[in-house]
Each structure stands twice: as structure tokens, then as C-alpha cells.
Amino acid sequence: NYILGIETSCDETAVAIVKNGKKIISNVVSSQIESHKRFGGVVPEIASRHHVEQMTFVLEEAFDQAKLTWDDIDAIAVTEGPGLVGALLVGVNTAKALAFAKQKPLVGVHHIAGHIYANRLDEEFQFPLLALIVSGGHTELVLMKEHGIYEVIGETRDDAAGEAYDKVARMLNLPYPGGPQIDRLAAIGQETISFPRAWLEVDSFDFSFSGLKSSVINKIHNAKQRGGELKEEDIAASFQASVVEVLTEKTWKAANKYNVKQVIVAGGVAANSGLRKALDKKFEDSNIPLLIPPLKLCTDNAAMIAAAGSIAFEAGKRSEWDLNANPSLTLR
Ligand code: ATP
Ligand code: MG
Ligand code: FE
Predict the structure, then answer these.
(1) Of 264, 311, 293, 298, nearest to 77 (Cα)?
(2) Where does the chain bind Fe cation (predicted)?
């Protein structure tokens, strides 16, 4: 099947066409980062307006690149949540209008299911699999025993990993989005400060990053007050070391406990070079294959939505005309 995917949950307007949930035919992403940069984060109203302005161009480009027409499309998959409600609404209403006009089935997709299925554009899934989801809004360990069924075995109790990256970056006066900036600095810094690792209860696969964030912020404050020397690259390296160690160890422990056949990593923070390196090293000598999507498929895109939509479509899932944006949709 050929699935047209639409993604507008945050600050990228994206349309893609994917064949059989595995092969990218076209993948167009219009990022709004420049528009949000001067505000230090995503401004919801601006995001919605951008989506409206960009949608028709991005859609046309997706068809142009694919050299396909509407006749070739079997269904339309769209992110229904979670995300910014005004942003989601643009995608959902575009998808509904197109489905109605072109007489195509409509499939609502969970944004995080999309991040997970970005991995399947690379390699076929082996079940049971464990997914580590690390993005701007989520930090979760998800166990999957079959396609489309998600069991959350651990999640953050406060900040998401990407959120912590962005907040620490802001404290260091680095531009938005902060994750890649910290990543860049961490590569040239040293772990000179020993920040806390939030392991929580012994058997817990939950995460917590707010304590770490606070201690980084305190450290920066104190150094500023004393006029002392604190290299930003060392703060970045020390912060990243803490985040990466907890993510890697908990993923390793869960993978072994549940005897999984594959571990996949998803979401924007999967682009982090320190995390990629640490996970690669941890799983290298094990018999558990580790899958991390190429950088371009880690952050928001519509190919991943089409990939997840393809599986749902094959399973017979259809959305009705009352499909609505749901900013707090849960993964099930
Ligand atoms: P969600 O998917 O939870 O709704 P989102 O869509 O905003 O949130 P993504 O687009 O998946 O999140 O990822 C964006 C996040 O990834 C930002 O917090 C950004 O700082 C972070 N990020 C991107 N690249 C890197 C990197 N190299 N290192 C660390 N973090 C990164
Ligand atoms: Mg984004
Ligand atoms: Fe995302």
C-alpha cells in the first residue's frame, strides 16, 4: 500500500508518502525553528499559523518528489495527538478534507507510535521489542509483543529528557533547540562535575530529570555569584553523562528482564551522539540487536506517521469524520 502521512503536532509541517510502511517514496519537512528561535521555544500561535501557510506547499512537494498522483494513494494517516492542539488541528483538518475530497480512508496515528515506527523504515521489527522513547515531550520505555500494541513499562515522573536538554541549554544562553547545542559542547567538554543520577526504586523503569536539571541550574547560579570559572562545555558534558548513563542502564536492564529480540530508540534525543555511542557500546557484545534511526528520522517527520499508519490501516483501523485533535492522547 501507499500511505500519505501528515504531521503537524509541534513545529514541523511534514508530509510524506511511504510504501508498505517500510519504504520512503517522499519525505518533506518544513521546519519553523527560525521563527521560534527568538522566543527561545515554540510559540503555539505562531506554530499553528505556519502550518496553515506551509501545508499546501509541503503537500505538493511530497507528490512532486514521489512522482505519484492521488490515484496511487490507499489511505491518509495523520497525527491526532499528543501535541499542541492548534498545531494538531491543522493536520487533522487537512487530512479530513483530503480524505473527503479524494474519497480515501483516514487513519489517526499517535505521534509516539510514529516515532517508534521510524525504525521500521530501516529494518523489520522482531518481537518482543523494547522501545526507548526520548523526545521533547516524552521519556518512556515501551514493550511491544506485536504490531500496534504498546505496553508502557516506565516513564518520566517529571521532565522529558529533551525538555531537560532544552532547559539546561537555556540556562547557558544557547539558542533553541538546545539539545543539539549541548550535544556539540559535551563532545569537547569533560565530566568535571558529578551530577546526580536518578535511579528511583530498584525495580523501577521510570525516569526523573527535574532533580538533575535543578542541580545543573544551581551549579550555574553559584558559579555566576562567586564569579568563578565554570566552563560551559564541562557543564554540558557532565549533564549529558548523567542523562545518558540512566537512559542506557535502564534500557539495558529492561531489555534483559523482558528477554527482547530487539531494542529500538525513538524521538529527537535519539539524535544525541553521546546516547548513540553509549547504547551502541552497551549492546555491541550482547545478542540483542539495537536499532537507532538515521538523524533525519529521529526528529519529527511524516514518513514515521505514514509507517505507523500503514500497520494500523492493514489491521483495519479507520478513523471517522469526527476524528479530532487530542493534545493528551495516550499510547495504547
Ligand atoms: P514529542 O515527540 O514528545 O511530542 P517533540 O516532537 O517536540 O516532542 P522531537 O521532535 O521528537 O520532540 O524532539 C525534539 C527534542 O529533541 C528537543 O527537545 C531537542 O532539543 C532534542 N534533540 C534534538 N537533537 C538532539 C541532540 N543531538 N541531543 C539531545 N537532544 C536533542
Ligand atoms: Mg520539533
Ligand atoms: Fe516528536
Answers:
(1) 311
(2) 111, 115, 300
179 is in an annotated binding site: yes
Which residues have CB under 8 Å from 133's CB, separation 6+? 112, 115, 116, 139, 140, 141, 142, 266, 267
Helix axis angle for 44-66 and 85-102, nearest 10°, is 30
For the four alpha carbons of 110, 111, 115 and 121, in that order, the dihedral sign comes to: positive
Contact predicate 37/326, CB 8 Å = no
Q: Bridge-partner residues for 109, per DSSP?
A: 79
What are residue 79's DSSP bridge partners? Answer: 109
Ligand 1 contacts CB of residue 177 (under 6 A): yes
Using one digit for the tens of pLDDT, what is the confidence trace for 161-186?
999 999 999 999 999 899 999 999 99
Q: Is the CB of 8 under 6 A from ligand 1?
A: no
pTM beyond 0.80: yes
Rounded CA-CA distance 41/28 in Å is: 22
Q: pLDDT tens-digit profile of 124-162? A: 999 999 999 999 999 999 999 999 999 999 999 999 999
- Cis upstream peptide for 82 (omega within 30°): yes
Ligand 3: centre distance to CA 298 (Å) = 8
